[in-house]
Write a structure and sequence with these properties.
The protein is an alpha/beta fold. It is built from seven helices and seven strands. Keywords: Oxidoreductase.
Length: 263
């Protein structure tokens, strides 16, 4: 990827970032956007799924090909000890990150009364508990004297909008927004910001149907009449990670083609 002329305040050169969660295309797009802006970027899977762990390594390779440092890890974000040990290892081998992007997402749709305890526990473990464990380890291991910290949580507009069949998913994703909001207050005096990027129907959303407008009734709910792309998340993440966004915290930014204003 070609170098771009970074404006003062948006340059991430010398920064270290960590992107957690590679099961969807957003993980790659977010990592490469931060690298393009100048950051060294470590990548971790959110689960021990083989394909996700392979993708973490592929993303790290792509970052190094851009001339940045990178490091790939296989995490299980549902296990707090695993997260803490992995973060410590990252600090030793890559350096402690000052930018965290939590992109772990376990999609789920099922009628409320048919959701099993096991399904809900797994959904909560990956989407909500993992966000808490990762953010906690990030703050615990934060390097002293290295400037402001940035926490960015990739969540969903369905954390704020009720849609049939998504009660369990909405419950846990709304908890991530609550976590981010609380951290924006608790960590503010230490120079941290905490924000959410909420996606709508993206071109990797399960069950979205065909991309053609005439063949997909879902499109009538999306003012832009198309699904979102992963590369449309990167620029916003760069902004939120940069010094230019130093006074932006506790916010939820919708990347959804206007759908949240339409529903």
């Amino acid at each position: 990827m070609a170098e771009w002329n970074r404006k003062p305040g948006f340059d991430l050169s010398g920064k270290r970032a960590l992107v957690v969660g590679c099961a969807n295309p957003a993980g790659r797009a977010l990592a490469l956007a931060l690298a393009e802006a100048g950051a060294d970027v470590a990548v971790a899977s959110a689960t021990t799924d083989g394909e996700e762990m392979l993708e973490a390594r592929r993303i790290a390779k792509a970052v190094t090909e851009m001339g940045r440092r990178s490091f790939a890890q296989g995490w299980d974000v549902t296990l707090p000890t695993n997260v803490q040990v992995s973060m410590k290892q990252l600090g030793k081998e890559f350096g402690r990150p000052t930018i965290l992007v939590y992109n772990a997402d376990l999609p789920f749709a099922k009628p409320f009364e048919k959701v099993t305890d096991t399904e809900f526990a797994r959904l909560q473990a990956v989407n909500q508990n993992g966000a808490f464990y990762t953010a906690r380890s990030f703050v615990r291991e934060f390097p002293e004297g290295e400037g402001p910290g940035r926490l960015i949580f990739v969540t969903s507009i369905f954390a704020e909008r009720g849609v049939e069949g998504l009660a369990a998913y909405t419950a846990v994703k709304s908890g991530v927004i609550g976590l981010s909001t609380a951290l924006s207050q608790e960590l503010a005096a230490r120079g941290f910001t905490s924000n959410c990027i909420a996606t709508g129907w993206m071109d990797w959303t399960p069950g979205r149907g065909p991309d053609e407008i005439g063949a997909n009734l879902l499109m009538r709910f999306i003012p832009m009449r198309r699904f979102g792309r992963a590369d449309e998340l990167g620029p916003l993440a760069v902004l939120l990670a940069s010094e230019a966004a130093g006074y932006i915290s506790g916010q939820v930014f919708h990347v959804d083609g206007g759908v949240s204003q339409h529903l």
